[in-house]
Model the fold of this input.
Amino acid sequence: MIVAVASAALRTPLGSDLGAVAARLLAGEGAARASPLFDAAAYRCSLGAAIGEAPASSRHRRFLDRLGLHALSAGLEALAKAGVRAGDPRLERTGLFVGTPGLRPRWDEMPTAFAEPAGAGPWAAGLRKLHPFWMLQHLSNNVHALLSMEAGITGEGATFGGGVAGAEALLAATRALHAGAVDLALVVAYDSLLAPEVLVDLAARTITAECSLEELRPAYDEHASGAVPGEAAAALVLARPGERAAEQGLVEVVTGVDPTPLASGEPRAALVAELASRVSRGERMVDGAAWAVCAQDDAERRELAQLLDPRALLTATSAAFGKLGAAAAVVQVAVWLELLRRRSIPPIAGLRRASPGPLSPLSSRAGALGQSALLLSTAAPGLACAVRVQAD
Done:
């Protein structure tokens, strides 16, 4: 099933303006730095790619963390770009579909809560310092509830959690539109892989870079050094094709799970290629799953070469943004619609010497080969998605 994209908004480590983000991608910039949110020197992966700007001021700060606030503002911006504002009667038939990383504890307040001697009991020792809404801040549908209230959305919707939750939200919105349950759909996804407990998990799965910034090598490099954790929030407004005067492009998405994933928890390349085969129309441009683990990257290229032209151009926006978890698919769609509009494909940030094999990893900017691209992303446990995006 195919849907049309009416508008898009994002917050990424390369910025929040789609035109500026596309320009930085095409220039080959990468956002990886020494972990920008806290001192990660003691972690196996000390690099990260963070959203540089602070979230917009909001009365909902009591309930939403930094990424939730970015997701809220991206959703409102996407609606405004689509010409839908509070009070619009179309909001009664607008659905809201949100992709989140799932339940993760908010640890920032805990050091303060236990900073005092415990002799007088836990409350006196610091628990009294926790915000009274601390438990409510952990609700996984906070962004959904507050965004629907702020925007006035009263249509159907759902919240999804997990590593490809953004793609799941896209798929649910697509089905709702085609079933006639809604006439417009706002899809919002956000995630950060920079939290301490996430860094520990990624390191245990041996998929992150354990090197300095100078030694970092991206996916499809012959010395790929592992992925860099990143973060992002993004939003799309979707409609049925042909129902809006201005459409940025068309999107089709499929998701799947590998019942026997790799030891890292990642799906095998065969699943990625199988999903790609369900949406592909012989694309010659691919934004790869880009594990930045040589054996997995090589397997992906071999599998895709059985489906696509072996000379198809291969890039990896995750080499620039870092791994984006639940937000990856929605960010990819937003960015690629702008890249296709510019008829240009970005290089793989930091690529020095591509490993041998089928497909053609890009070390420099290239002209677009057509008006559609295949976008791939994966996550644990065994999750993958494939998206075909076509510019109008």
Q: What stands out?
A: The chain has a mean pLDDT of 93.
